[in-house]
Amino acid sequence: MTDADFDVEYVERDERSARVLIRGLTPAFANGIRRAMIADVPTFSIDTVRFIENSSVMFDEMIGLRLGLIPLTTPVDEFEIGDEVTLALDVEGPGTAYSGDIETAEPLVQPADENVPIVELKEGQRLEFEADAVLNTGKEHAKHQGGVSVGYRHLQRVTIEGDLGEFDDDEPRILRGVIETPDGDIVVTDEFDNDLSKRYPGKEVSVEDVPGAFVFHIETDGSFSVEELLLRAIDSIEGRADELRTKVAV
Known about the structure:
20% of the residues lie in helices and 39% in strands. It has 250 residues and is α+β, with helices and mostly antiparallel strands. It has two domains: 3-40 and 147-237, 2-Layer Sandwich (Gyrase A, domain 2); 43-138, Beta Complex (RNA Polymerase Alpha Subunit, Chain A, domain 2).
């Protein structure tokens, strides 16, 4: 397929989540994009921790696990798989150590959220450590999955068949996601409480899947934007296809 075979439309979008309608996909390709967003797009994550002092109530291993789950901003073009960045924290109680207290040797790589709690420190307790964050992919470890929620479903087209009969009840008809209306508009079902009977009162409607059209619901952990995640996933698929093409041609 060429780029002209695809039509992409953002139905909803903010910095960390979006609904994206893509037309011109096969089910296998749609699933490939989903898998690539989960497993192939690399993110930085804390991998090794060197504790200088930990007098909190939590063991080193428990804090290490928490640190590995703190999302870090990931400018993929600036680094390669396996690259490391050094981070550090030094907090003394009373108070809570947060992700925002972590200092970084590389300004481009820092906690995506400042308010992730690490541990509560009492009077006289202290947490000090150095850590190495490594760039890797979700296929190596789940903590590197920048796409925390990625799913898709067929776009569904609604057709008005006519008016309900005189004695027919206008019963609720629940439909969730994104639909294409009889006028060709793309509408999120949340707008009418997911009930087609509210959108088309007194009408008999039918619903069918639109061939080759899929709506992706994507949410990131803040490592990068939704658009970056989607583009990186597609680049990954294209890269593997080119590699296979080269090997077959040999």
